[in-house]
Amino acid sequence: MRTVDPAKHAAKRRAIVDAAAGCFAEKGLERTTTADICRAAGISSGSLFHYFPNKRAVFTAIFEEDARDTAERLAAAAEAGDPWTALLDVALALAAEVAHPAIARLVLEAAAQAARDDEFAELIRNNERALADGLAVLIERAVAAGLIDPGVPPHTAAGWVAALADALITRAAFDPDVDTAAELVILRTILIRFLRPVSAVSPPDGA
After folding, report:
1. Measured over all CA atoms, what is the biggest interatomic distance in the chain, rounded to whole angstroms?
2. SS3 150
3. Distance (Å, rounded) from C-alpha 64 to C-alpha 8?
4. Residues 150-199: pLDDT tens digits?
5. Contact 114, 120 (CB under 8 A)
6. Does residue 68 sit within a domain?
7. How many domains in the chain?
8. How far apart are CA 55 and CA 66, in angstroms?
């Protein structure tokens, strides 16, 4: 019996998922075929079905992988010496990702599928809860360090941080000319004014 190398298996599986994400972003789940995925990944149908039973499983895996990536990012941010900078970096990185037109379309497709599939909807809800919890940890640390307004409820604020980042999704999905860099500058300004203590964002007297 041939021994399976876990690292190689995981890498190949991830490569299939990444290739399929482009297909789903372009054509949606229903119109994408397993043949499309195989062509994009450069594999045979037999190889595809070795890793996934069907295309819906591949679609689901995209968001499972995304949850793992986000968890790793949040865990690293929680260990950072400056929780405020870590929070800003995470929020802006998430916004930059969803502002990519292909990713934005993929997220909108996920929302459509969640409306039809209770199990998939639960996965998306769990992902959103995990993101909010991770952001809340960063906010709590920043409050403790005096870097965020202590009157801001961490979990409520975390939900708004995520919502502000997600606000770029529909704009990016439907407006290919959206200026992501400019939008991120505005988002950063909004977060600073929303979360920082008044003394940290108010101009000095006479300014």
Report:
1. 78
2. coil
3. 18
4. 999 999 999 999 999 888 887 888 887 888 899 999 999 999 999 998 66
5. yes
6. yes
7. 1
8. 17
Gap between the Cα atoms of 108 and 49, Å rounded: 26
Query: Does residue 205 lie within any of the structural domains?
Result: no
Look up the domain containing 80 and give its range. Answer: 62-200
User: In angstroms, what CA-CA distances link 64 with 57, 69, 124?
Assistant: 10, 9, 9
- Asked if the structure places residue 118 within a domain, the reply is yes
Q: Which of 60, 56, 69, 51 is nearest to 8 (CA)?
A: 51
Would residue 130 count as lying in a domain? yes
What are the φ and ψ backbone dihedral angles of 32, each rounded to 5 degrees? Answer: -75, 135
Query: Contacts from 103-107 at CB under 8 Å and sequence distance 24+?
Result: 103/25, 103/172, 104/168, 104/169, 104/170, 104/171, 104/172, 104/173, 105/25, 105/26, 105/173, 106/21, 106/24, 106/25, 106/62, 107/166, 107/169, 107/173
CATH of the domain at 141: 1.10.357.10
What is the model's pTM? 0.86
Q: How many whole angstroms separate alpha carbon 20 and alpha carbon 12?
A: 12
> Which tokens sit at 65?
């992988």
